[in-house]
């Protein structure tokens, strides 16, 4: 998820913690504890993304692909990160040190804020199709939620509106609410969001803000309402994702020369459970080939066909039909070539520890999930650039997402290039 969503989730957790914990007798101590819990949860909610400093350990694009959402996004390594963040805050904030020394309740809240911040970060990152592996080193496999767009306005609105109502200054409160309402409106005008989605977002904002209004310094009704609406939203997205996957698999089987569908990766349109971009991979028994497909699926084609999904993120061009599923890419690759290159090229093997939809064309590897990325396909790697290079060190041992195609039954079945 984007860092604004992570920050808002942390702020909401810190605000709720402060309101639920027993009040401090001293108003100054209460203010310090309030700020401490807000800052701690917000920083903890973003801290794992500091893994970007690890990307120079491997040549591009491997550094980003294998170290982002890597070790810092695991339950085991959350513990030393929590200690590091706590130490840094206590060193830099004398007032926080005094508050934690004097108040057992503050110490309890501080520990909960750290744990909630890191836990929320992992849970939120799981929701989209990029993936993470939170149980490493016990399980190095990737987990994909395929539910929520990586920049999801619903998180900004559902959390931001009730949080705005906790601001004591009327001027700052109105400014924050104005920004919250203006940003999704801008994205709607630019065709990233549908007008229907905008209406739902505004309704969520109004409900959360009004529920929090007048609750007093200890009330959490609006914040609880925002979290509840987010849970409902994620549940709807999860159900829609499963249905979209089934629709795509059925459409794959209706095409000429159907095969075994190994995986369908789904990317939601923001705040729109009807529209999805998909990438799918299949292979045919007894044939030296696998097949990659990409397109758009609509779950309500009679009312909103795939071609009518929000245009700024719609990968279709010139399609005016009313189909539920429209294919954009249909690419075939050689299984023999894929396996031989993986066995012989240590850079390609490292890259395959990330790739969920691997495509190898004329010596260039790319993951079909990200062909339409705003910054180009950041997964592209020209194998000829590393032809004379020694095998890379510091390669995380994530399980190959396409071990099924590579005939790798377990991680240890892979080649050791070191």
Automatic annotation (TrEMBL):
The keyword Transmembrane applies. Coiled coil: none annotated. It comes from the Bacteria. It holds the Pfam family YdjM. Keywords: Membrane, Transmembrane, Transmembrane helix. The keyword Oxidoreductase does not apply. The chain crosses the membrane at residues 75-96, 108-127, 147-165, 172-189, 195-215, 222-240. This is Inner membrane protein.
């Amino acid at each position: 998820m984007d860092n604004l969503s992570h920050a808002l989730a942390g702020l909401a957790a810190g605000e709720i913690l402060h309101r639920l914990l027993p009040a401090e007798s001293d108003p100054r101590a209460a203010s310090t504890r309030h700020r401490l819990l807000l800052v701690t949860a917000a920083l903890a909610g973003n801290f794992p993304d500091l893994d970007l400093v690890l990307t120079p350990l491997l040549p591009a694009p491997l550094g980003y692909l294998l170290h982002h959402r890597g070790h810092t996004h695991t339950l085991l390594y959350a513990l030393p990160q929590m200690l590091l963040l706590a130490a840094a805050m206590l060193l830099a904030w004398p007032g926080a040190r005094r508050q934690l020394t004097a108040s057992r309740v503050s110490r309890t809240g501080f520990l909960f804020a750290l744990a909630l911040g890191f836990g929320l970060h992992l849970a939120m990152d799981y929701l989209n199709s990029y993936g993470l592996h939170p149980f490493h080193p016990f399980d190095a496999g990737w987990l994909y939620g395929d539910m929520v767009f990586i920049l999801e306005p619903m998180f900004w609105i559902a959390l931001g509106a009730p949080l705005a109502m906790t601001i004591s200054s009327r001027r700052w409160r109105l400014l924050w609410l104005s920004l919250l309402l203006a940003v999704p409106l801008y994205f709607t005008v630019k065709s990233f969001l549908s007008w229907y989605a905008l209406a739902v977002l505004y309704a969520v904002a109004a409900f959360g803000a009004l529920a929090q209004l007048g609750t007093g310094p200890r009330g959490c009704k609006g914040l609880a309402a925002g979290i509840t609406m987010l849970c409902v939203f994620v549940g709807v997205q999860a159900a829609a994702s499963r249905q979209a996957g089934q629709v795509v698999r059925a459409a794959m089987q209706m095409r000429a020369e159907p095969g075994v569908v190994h995986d369908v990766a789904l990317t939601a349109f923001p705040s729109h459970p009807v529209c999805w971009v998909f990438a799918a991979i299949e292979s045919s028994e007894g044939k030296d080939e696998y097949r990659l497909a990409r397109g758009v699926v609509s779950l309500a084609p009679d009312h909103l066909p795939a071609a009518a999904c929000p245009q700024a993120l719609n990968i279709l061009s010139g399609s005016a039909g009313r189909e539920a599923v429209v294919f954009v890419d249909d690419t075939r690759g050689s299984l023999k070539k894929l396996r031989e290159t993986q066995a012989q090229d240590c850079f390609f093997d490292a890259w395959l520890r990330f790739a969920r939809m691997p495509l190898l064309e004329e010596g260039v590897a790319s993951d079909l999930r990200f062909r339409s990325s705003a910054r180009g396909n950041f997964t592209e790697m020209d194998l000829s650039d590393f032809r004379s290079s020694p095998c890379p060190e510091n390669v995380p041992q994530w399980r190959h997402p396409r071990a099924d195609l590579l005939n790798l039954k377990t991680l240890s079945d892979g080649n050791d290039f070191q």
